[in-house]
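Sample entry copied in:
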Amino acid sequence: MPEITKITTQKKSKHRFNIFLKENEQEYYGFSVNEDILIEYYLRKGQILTPEMIEQIQEKDESYKAYTLSVKYLSYRMRSEQELMDHLQRKEVDDTYIGEVITRLKREGLVDDLAFSEALVRTKMQTSTKGPLMIKKELAEKGIQASIMEQALSFYTFEKQFEKVEKLAKKKLQASSKKSHQQQIDSIKQSLMQKGFSFQVISEVLNNIELERDDDEEYHAIVFQGEKLVTKYQKKDSGYALKQKVKAALYRKGFASDLIDRFVNEHMSEH
């Protein structure tokens, strides 16, 4: 049976050791182990190892490597169980050890999909403009189960969504725009839905905030867009036909008929 003849420290890792063996007068490199495994099995020069012991030591070391890889990966930030599994697979860790190490990390509280999901929801609520539907998609991509997602997203209450949507909507409405008031409202709705807020909360916010049209700003916008339309259409049309085309286009852009008539009277009298 093999006998340990020499134990050396690896050059690239001071916590890993190379075990050299001798059998039938032949000395050879046997395997490497982590420092903790070395201590656990009390490996030393002159020790006789059975093939079963060597197999057991190597299996224990592979499991330990998977564990240390996982702990290092988790040290940067919280991870979902699926994220950790994917990481270990990329590192070519055997599936047997992946399952084993995840069970251990769950027991130690280092992998907890509910705690991970709750933390992610709270962080996104505080630091981003994402709504619950967008966050839910992100959780799904990280392999979180539907029941856990719903539990975590319960922190993002309707009141908190309303508050965030109201803030975003008011900010957009205050920004100068060359669009019609209606175009701005439609743009706000689309933007908020893309961020993952529901139609229900968006509608309730828009029904509650001040959405009065500023006639001066609206007229500046209609002049800006109307003159562009005149330039575009007058290449083919003039007179009544041109005016009708411009009026129809401005109406589609959400401008009110009284402002359209005013624009036509004040800016298209010569066409």
Summary: DSSP finds 13 helices and three strands in the chain. The chain has four domains: 1-49, 113-153, 158-208, 215-267. The chain has a mean pLDDT of 90. The longest helix spans residues 51-74.
